[in-house]
């Protein structure tokens, strides 16, 4: 997946919010126009009032201060309200668009051919940090039209002082834009890349270390981990300082250019003093309006880095396209031809797989479930078609896997069960819990289905996590149920009840079963003569 594909995805995500972005842009233009006019009018009014005061009582009485002061108040209110509206609508549109991008990329990570190729820490940093970096480019979309409006009004007001002054302002504004575009890649590109890389490495390390915190404490590795994180933090701080220095240099150029522009207007103006002050302050307002666009250009270095990192993770799979509609049902038959084992299963039949550790039992289930990529020589076919040539989405739609190491959401029991498929009722959830002998445990919990299970199910025992995973698998209502060591962590009595519950459920639903286990009771679910043993 190329950067163009990611940018197209971003454009598609912006689509529903396009109207909101236009509103934000319009409000930014109104706020900028009001700001430049307010600055110029205030300068004219203060200068004119001061000259009228110096001219004596008659001049003061002749000076109309009511209308300009009313206009100043009106412009201040308009600028404040428009700026607030622009921030509100612009941020809302950006957050909604990025939520859509984040969901699509998360779906992409889940639908890669080998989801285990993406570490949890790396996935988190790219989905959070790198997509957040794109927010700046969306929020600053109104900056360009606002800068153009500010430049146009500044040009018009300085024309009242002198045409030459207005042309000098225009040339200086163009020069400042060129300065930003030329300085950004030289001053910020490398620093932005180093900063994003260091921050991503630090966040990924924090996520990975947090998941291994019990082992870190048990083996006394906390000091070594702290030193490692300190080194990564130092690298991030150095990159941030370089980026801050580059931004400061670009901002200094903008400030210096603004000072030159104001001095040029003051020198070239041939109008009266109040009008000259109006032109000078209008120039300051035009340069200030341009500063938002210049800051967006400098922040573009971070956006480019984020796009490159997102492109890198997207290229781990051949396509981001989601399956349109429901995939064509497959999996009516499964055929295994590997290691001297030849067996064919029809829909609703069962198979038990035994073998010593390392013989490939878990890999076989993960390949069937679409978690591992199927190779041309894997020896598995569905509906007489090699697994490797079938669409991954269609393969996954045929199998429900309860893995040996069940991963749970950091949510409630209900949250973890409803992941299986949308529209599940509480009655269906309780029925699945009954099948897996977990209903009594959940009823004994203070909040029942709404009981918080902790980070990754940390508040549950190993056997409870395993049975919750099995309940989630059977709720998905797939053609085939894949179980990897389903009785791990269970006592013999609970194991026997689980076997009876699964046997009844399989008979009622006519779902097929492939179970991997070292225990005879679970392998007996497959029936006589339906157990194979994998070798090396």
Name the features.
single chain; four-stranded antiparallel sheet; Rossmann fold
Description of the molecule:
With 536 residues, the chain is an alpha/beta fold. The protein has two domains: 3-314, ABC transporter transmembrane region fold (Up-down Bundle), CATH 1.20.1560.10; 333-534, P-loop containing nucleotide triphosphate hydrolases (Rossmann fold, 3-Layer(aba) Sandwich), CATH 3.40.50. Helices cover 66% and strands 8% of the residues. It has helices at 3-14, 18-55, 57-62, 66-110, 120-139, 143-161, 163-187, 189-211, 213-218, 222-268, 273-314, 361-369, 392-396, 413-418, 426-435, 439-444, 462-475, 492-509, 520-523, and strands spanning 333-338, 341-346, 350-355, 380-382, 385-386, 399-402, 480-484, 512-516, 531-534. A five-stranded parallel beta sheet has the order 6-7-8-3-9, sandwiched between helices. The longest helix has 47 residues, at 222-268. The radius of gyration is 33 Å and the shape is elongated. It starts with a helix and ends with a strand.
């Amino acid at each position: 997946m190329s950067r163009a594909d990611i940018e197209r995805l971003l454009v598609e995500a912006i689509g529903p919010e396009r109207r909101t972005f236009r509103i934000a842009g319009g409000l930014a233009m109104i706020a900028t126009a009001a700001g430049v006019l307010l600055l110029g009018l205030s300068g004219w009014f203060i200068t004119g009032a001061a000259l009228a005061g110096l001219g004596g009582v008659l001049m003061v009485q002749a000076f109309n201060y009511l209308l300009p002061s009313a206009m100043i108040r009106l412009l201040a209110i308009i600028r404040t309200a428009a700026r607030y509206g622009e921030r509100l609508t612009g941020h809302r549109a950006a957050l909604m668009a990025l939520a859509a991008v984040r969901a699509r990329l998360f779906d992409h990570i889940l639908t890669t051919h080998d989801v285990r190729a993406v570490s949890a820490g790396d996935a988190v940093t790219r989905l959070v940090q790198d997509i957040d970096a794109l927010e700046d480019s969306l929020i600053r979309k109104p900056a360009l039209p606002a800068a153009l409006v500010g430049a146009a009004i500044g040009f018009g007001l300085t024309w009242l002082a002198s045409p030459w002054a207005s042309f000098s302002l225009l040339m200086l504004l163009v020069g400042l834009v060129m300065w930003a575009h030329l300085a950004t890649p030289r001053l910020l590109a490398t620093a932005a890349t180093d900063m994003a890389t260091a921050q991503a490495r630090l966040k990924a390390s924090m996520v990975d270390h947090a998941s291994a915190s019990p082992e870190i404490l048990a083996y006394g590795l906390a000091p070594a981990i702290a030193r490692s994180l300190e080194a990564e933090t130092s690298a991030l701080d150095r990159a941030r300082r370089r980026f801050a220095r580059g931004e400061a240099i670009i901002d200094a150029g903008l400030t210096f250019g603004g000072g030159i522009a104001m001095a040029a207007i003051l020198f070239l103006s041939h109008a009266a003093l109040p009008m000259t002050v109006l032109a000078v302050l209008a120039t300051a307002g035009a340069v200030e309006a341009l500063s938002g666009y210049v800051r967006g250009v400098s922040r573009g270095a971070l956006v480019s880095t984020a796009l490159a990192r997102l492109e890198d993770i997207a290229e781990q799979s051949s396509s981001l396209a989601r399956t349109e509609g429901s995939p064509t049902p497959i999996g009516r038959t499964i055929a295994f031809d590997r290691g001297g084992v030849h067996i064919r299963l029809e829909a609703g039949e069962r198979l038990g797989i035994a073998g010593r550790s390392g013989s490939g039992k878990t890999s076989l289930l993960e390949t069937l479930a679409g978690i591992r990529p199927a190779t041309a020589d894997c020896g598995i076919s569905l509906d007489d078609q090699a697994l490797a040539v079938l669409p991954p989405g269609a393969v996954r739609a045929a199998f429900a896997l309860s893995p040996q190491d069940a991963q749970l959401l950091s949510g409630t029991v209900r949250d973890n069960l409803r992941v299986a498929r949308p529209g599940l009722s509480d009655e269906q959830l309780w029925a699945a819990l009954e099948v897996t002998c977990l209903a009594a445990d959940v009823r004994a919990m203070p909040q029942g289905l709404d009981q918080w299970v902790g980070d990754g199910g940390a508040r549950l025992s190993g056997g409870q996590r395993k049975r919750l995973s099995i309940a989630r698998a059977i709720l998905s209502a797939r053609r085939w149920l894949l179980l990897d060591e389903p009785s791990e962590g269970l006592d013999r009595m609970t194991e026997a009840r689980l076997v009876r519950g699964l046997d009844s459920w399989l008979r009622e639903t006519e779902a097929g079963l492939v179970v991997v286990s070292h225990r005879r009771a679970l392998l007996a679910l497959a029936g006589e003569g339906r157990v194979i043993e994998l070798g090396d």
